[in-house]
Amino acid sequence: MLIAKRDFAADHIWFADDIFALSPSWTRTFADAVESSGAALPFKMQSRPDLMTRDTVGALRRAGCSEVWMGAESGSQKILDAMEKGTRIEHIYEARENLRRHGIRACFFLQFGYPGETREDIDKTIKDGA
To answer: Longest Cα pair distance anywhere in the chain, in angstroms?
Structure first.
């Protein structure tokens, strides 16, 4: 990040790694290194809702994170269960709130038309803003 910032005048970075911040310890170490070297740049990243805990999001903010894209997929627990991802609706809401609290934009990947999905399931996704 420091080289991109210093040598190439980068104004943002996109980390295209769908499990960025998988390890809370690694994320804290990453944030410490970025902070101490003055390498912070606004960055976007991908992750999972269950990984966006208060501590992890705080570390991401220190490193310059401005936007997190997560695979929420659906606002219906029935559909999430059918996908067998282990995601709970509560994870999505908690992630969104933790990110908001730190001024990081929460963005979601959604799926519509999953096998067995009904109009009621779709309405839950739209209504609840998952």
So the answer is: 52
The two structure tokens encoding residue 99: 């990110």
Q: Which residues contact 12 (CB under 8 A, 6 or more apart)?
A: 41, 42, 43, 44, 66
Q: What are phi and psi of 81, to 5 degrees?
A: -65, -40
CB 74 within 8 A of CB 121: yes
Spatial contact of 44 and 67, defined as CB atoms under 8 Å apart? yes
Sign of the torsion formed by the C-alpha atoms of 18, 24, 27 and 31: positive
The pTM assigned to this predicted structure is 0.90
For 18-32, what is each residue's pLDDT tens digit? 889 999 999 999 999
Is the Cβ–Cβ distance between 65 and 103 less than 8 Å?
no
Q: Encoding tokens for residue 77?
A: 């627990």
The Cα 77–Cα 81 span in angstroms is 6
Cβ(108)–Cβ(72) below 8 Å: yes
